[in-house]
Amino acid sequence: WAVASEHAMIDWLNRLLNRDIKRGDPQAAPAVASPSRMATLQDLQESFRGAKQLYANDQFEAAAERFETLVARKHNWADAHRWLGICRLGQGRAEDAYDAFIMALHFEPGSVRSRYGIALAEQALGRTEDALRTLDTILEEHHDHADAYNMRGGLRLGRKDIAGARSDFELAIAADPLHVKAHSNLGDVLFCDLGEYERGAHHIERALELDPDNRAARCNLALVLAHRGDDRAAIAMCDRLLSEDPNLHEARLHRAL
Questions:
Q1: How do residues 44-70 score in pLDDT, each as one tens digit?
Q2: Which among 205, 198, 115, 128 is positioned nearest to 164, based on CA atoms?
Q3: N or C terminus of the chain with fewer C-beta within 10 Å?
Q4: What is the DSSP string of the chain?
Q5: Distance between CA 103 and CA 138 in Å, rounded?
Q6: Which residues, at least 6 apart from 29, have a Cβ–Cβ distance to it below 8 Å?
Q7: By CB neighbour count within 10 A (0-12 exposed, 13-18 middle, 19+ buried), where does 210 fall?
Q8: What HEC string does 17-51 produce?
Q9: Could you tell me if 145 and 117 are in contact, meaning their C-beta atoms sit under 8 angstroms apart?
Q10: What are phi and psi of 195, to 5 degrees?
Q11: Phi-psi region of 16 (alpha: psi -120 to 50; beta: other; left: phi over 0)
């Protein structure tokens, strides 16, 4: 989830003023906003930016509290509800995340970002069929949504639909050739499930070119190295991964292989 740009936030503030005027809101701003109104909007903007920074620093609880305050102050602020949902996912509170994304969608109908958040929450809740339906809805209208293809591919892989997963990962890469996770996932499917070793290795290595720290791709690279007969390098890769995260099950499994 990319943090919204400052320009996007300013645009939202301008649209907020215009929307309130058009709707005849009894508290709507005049055509030329009063100093107090502008001060309130600037305060909202600063609080929003600060909350996103807390999230970026993995301070999910503090960020969520800030976003809760923002939606209390401006109840129809879809972006604040959406970011509250993102924070709730970070806290492991998937049900609350789902509710927040639903509210965001209510105030911004058709929002692909809110629908994608709903799919993430449904996945976290174990509602795979619901998540797949939500992703299908997104992709019916947005054929270039690489994240949605990649997520759907992962869900299909979990259902042992190897052909469907492969297709989705390929579609994700077609939509975004720099999508690290899609390259890593496609490489995993090709290498581990379909026995297309060199094609799989190509995508795994491409993922690492794009993001040398990607743990999933580094885990898969260990398999590639072992397949190529370089057991020492494969074991060394697994050991490095385990030194970073002793609970990384995949690295421990690959080392044993």
A1: 889 999 999 999 999 999 999 999 999
A2: 128
A3: C
A4: -PPPPHHHHHHHHHHHHHHHHHHT-TTPPPSS--HHHHHHHHHHHHHHHHHHHHHHTT-HHHHHHHHHHHHHHSTT-HHHHHHHHHHHHHHT-HHHHHHHHHHHHHHSTT-HHHHHHHHHHHHHTT-HHHHHHHHHHHHHH-TT-HHHHHHHHHHHHHTT-HHHHHHHHHHHHHH-TT-HHHHHHHHHIIIIIS--HHHHHHHHHHHHHH-TT-HHHHHHHHHHHHHTT-HHHHHHHHHHHHHH-TT-HHHHHHHH-
A5: 17
A6: 17, 20, 21, 37
A7: middle
A8: HHHHHHHCCCCCCCCCCCHHHHHHHHHHHHHHHHH
A9: no
A10: 70, 20
A11: alpha
Is 238 within 8 Å of 251 (Cβ atoms)? yes
Query: Taking the CB of residue 112, how many other CB atoms lie within 10 A of it?
Result: 17
Cα 213 to chain centroid distance, Å, stands at 18
Calpha distance 225→189 (Å, rounded): 16
Tokens for 178, please give them: 């720099």
Does pTM surpass 0.85? no
What does the alpha-carbon distance between residue 172 and residue 255 come to, in Å, rounded to a whole number? Answer: 30
